[in-house]
Amino acid sequence: MSNDTVTDNQPHILFIQKYTPKTLKDFNLLPEIFNSLTTLINTENLNLLLIGSMGSGKTNIIHSIIKEYYKNIVETVYNQNILYINNLHEQGINYYRSEVKTFCQTSSMVKGKKKIVVIDDIDMINEQSQQVFRNCIDKYSHNVCFLSSCTNNQKVIESIQSRLTLISLPHITNTILYSIFQNIIDTENISIDKNAVEFIVNVSNKTIKNLINYAEKCKLLNAHIDYEMSLKICSDIDIHMFDSYTNSIKSGDMRNAINIIYEIVDDGYSVMDILNNYFSYIKASSLLTEDQKYAIVPYICKYITAFHDIHENDIELPLFTNNLIKALSVK
């Protein structure tokens, strides 16, 4: 990420605003992706579908494309030329047939430039609504660019994919995260141990936003960040309680493990809070071998999914704990 996005004259700007990439160059995109996007911008052929995992930067890249396309035009002016559509699954079909159609039929507010419709998470809308979007592409591409993103392109109808340029974004690697974090550390003069850096990068969940937020916590503490301090920064739940819980399941002490996890519940944390924080903890913990981690992570993910889709109930925590003990007992 470029240092050009940071200035010492803006001490009160939130890190997420200060260090989020602003231009396409800031994203350190693969050369072929950067060149493709640049060509599409220059040729005004921005009927585009960005495909990438959560945290891959899809939305921010779309914003950068828009800024580059409307370069040298005041933002308040070109914003009138853009229709942002989010959470499409909550809108009725009539919304697409009226609001979107009306927007596409009116003239561009910027001379010599097309209007833009931005649809985040197009894979989250139903097929009928996607068909309306496809019809808009067919009718209004002469006046409107259609920028969209998705996580799973298999949920995007083929007739839309065939009308858009598809670009797949690679997963965020630890190498990229280390580079971003080191840039912030150097720029902000954060004093931090190497093992603390490694821990924070590992628990950032491959997400730049999380990493930037952790970096801001380090800065706000205005103290040297060692490994113990990084544990507190990256988890709302006391890491030492997770250490005790993990040691208990390793030794097969189910009663103590259950007592510990219910103590966390009594501190006011929900089941989802506990599972999500424990998942992050496991990935960076040195108490478990890689084989042991592989054995219990599927159970953590299973329970997170179940509680997210159905309901969460702390009565399930003893069963969850028992499953972890059984998983480790075969290792």
Automatic annotation (TrEMBL):
CDD domains: AAA. This is AAA+ ATPase domain-containing protein. Coiled coil: none annotated. One of its GO terms (molecular function) is ATP binding. It comes from viral metagenome. Residues 44-191 form the AAA+ ATPase domain. Keywords: ATP-binding, DNA replication, Nucleotide-binding. The keyword Nucleotide-binding applies. GO terms for biological process: DNA repair; DNA-templated DNA replication. GO terms for cellular component: DNA replication factor C complex. Pfam families: AAA, Rep_fac_C.
